Amino acid sequence: MAKALQCHRNTVGNVRRHFVAAGLAAALYDKPLPPRAPRKITGEVEAHLIALACSAPPEGQQRWTLRLLANRLVELGLVERISHVAVGARLKNNEPVKG
């Protein structure tokens, strides 16, 4: 059957298992995804983040780190809490296009 449908045999097994457990609708349609949490970095916060990253680093530091940037956003009251990973992901999305 997998060869006829041009899919992996595990896909056929998964569909079969869903059909047996919960019926045709479960086998044919994915469950709806839970609602996403609102983004912590809005346009205003992003503008502050970019301005911070482009400014001089804090006293005693050679450069801004992602953790320093995240902590400063919290200190400024722009977000309640945020991880350095989220800060890095947002900054990565704003890199100028090379070429």
How does this structure look, described?
By secondary structure, this protein is mostly helical. It is elongated, with a radius of gyration of 23 Å. Helices cover 56% and strands 0% of the residues. The chain has two domains: 33 residues, no CATH class; 51 residues.
Defining traits:
single chain; 99 residues; mainly alpha; 2 domains; 6 helices; elongated
Query: Got a strand count?
Result: 0
What would you report as the Rg, rounded to the nearest angstrom? Answer: 23 Å
Classification by helices and strands: mainly alpha
Q: What would you call the shape?
A: elongated
Task: Write the SSE topology.
Layout: H1 2-5, H2 9-22, H3 24-28, H4 43-54, H5 66-75, H6 84-93
Helix pairs in contact: 5-6
Short description:
The chain is an all-alpha fold and 99 residues long. It contains 6 helices and no strands. 7% of the residues are buried.
